[in-house]
Design a protein that fits this description.
Length: 203
């Protein structure tokens, strides 16, 4: 990416309330994770995925009471997807919900955003999609309904969630668990290939 283009992106993202790092600067390890913090995992394997995630993060920042923290972009092999599915681009964000937001109201906003970015009702399980937003945690809230499970039940088993999340909230222990994100990642054994896309601290 050219220097001018990058600085314009940085400028646009900062104006939108996204905490961004300049090139080469790693996300702050051990970042504060207040009780009310929301964690959202993003994925895309259809269309211009990196751009979709950039735009989606700007929209998520508008749901945040404070500056949103975001990971780098990561590329990952599809997991539990139909044969021939394209690779994913993944990321994670952490933010503080606005007053009055509930896990249910936020999930509805995330689903509306998925639709806005072109997501259609699925015909095949885990088929390619322009945008997938998973609510990983909403502070210490716990849910087990047909619409919403919190914390997300598979987050700690997925490298494509743990790697980005480890950049922004390594010390986070999800409600009901005893291990931190960093610890889950260290002991995870899967054949997923998940690689950080270089120079995407400021995407
Ligand atoms: P997906 O195809 O992965 O986007 O799954 C979406 C479905 O999972 C929707 O029917 C949601 O109601 C449900 N769901 C349950 N828990 C969660 C969660 N923590 N985050 C996002 N979707 C969830």
């Amino acid at each position: 990416m050219g220097g001018g283009q990058e600085s314009r992106r940085l400028h646009d993202a900062r104006r939108a309330g996204v905490e961004v790092k300049s090139r080469g600067q790693r996300p702050r390890p051990g970042a504060r994770t207040p009780r009310s913090e929301v964690i959202v995992a993003l994925g895309s394997n259809l269309g211009d995925s990196a751009n979709v995630l950039r735009e989606a993060v700007i929209r998520l920042a508008s749901l945040s009471a404070r500056r949103l923290r975001r990971s780098s972009l990561w590329r990952s092999t599809p997991v539990d997807c139909p044969p021939g599915s394209p690779p994913f681009v993944n990321a994670a964000v952490a933010f503080e919900p606005t007053a009055g937001e509930t896990p249910e109201s936020l999930l509805a906003r995330l689903q509306a955003l998925e639709k806005e970015f072109g997501r259609r009702p699925k015909t095949i399980l885990n088929e390619p999609r322009p945008l997938d937003l998973d609510l990983i945690a909403f502070g210490s809230e716990v849910r087990a309904t047909s619409e919403l499970t919190l914390p997300h039940p598979r987050a700690h088993q997925r490298r494509f969630v743990l790697e980005p999340l480890n950049e922004i909230a390594p010390a986070l222990v999800l409600p009901g668990q005893t291990k931190s994100i960093r610890e889950w990642l260290a002991e995870l054994r899967t054949d997923e290939v998940v690689r950080r896309i270089p120079d995407t601290n400021s995407w």
